[in-house]
Amino acid sequence: MQTLQLIFTDTNGGRRVLSLARAEAPDADVIRQAMQAIADTKLFKKDDNVIYATPVAANGVVTETHALYLA
């Protein structure tokens, strides 16, 4: 399984991570455009702080599931 981690800074300078589970990682330009679209909507706010204000980076994290116990 792959998780796509979109890393932003908020308007107060804090680091924010938006994780998308089971995501397929398209090319860098598509990710960059999607992150900018998220930032441009300013949809995610807490008080006057825009949570996903400035795109910083994107990481693809691959995880494997291992059975630890089977009955």
Oligomer: single chain
Number of structural units classed as domains: 1
> How much beta, percentage-wise?
35-45%
Summarize the helix and strand pattern as letters. EEHEEE
Poorly predicted segments: none
Mean pLDDT: 88
Main beta sheet: 3 strands, antiparallel
Shape: elongated
Strand order of the largest sheet: 2-1-5
Quote the distance from N terminus to C terminus: 24 Å
What count of helical segments does DSSP give? 1
How many extended strands? Answer: 5
Radius of gyration: 15 Å
What would you note in describing this structure?
This protein has one helix spanning 28-41; strands at 2-9, 15-21, 45-46, 49-50, 54-62. By secondary structure, the chain is of the alpha+beta class. It has one domain (2-62). A hairpin with a 5-residue loop joins strand 1 and strand 2 (15-21). The chain starts with a strand and ends in a 9-residue tail after the last strand.
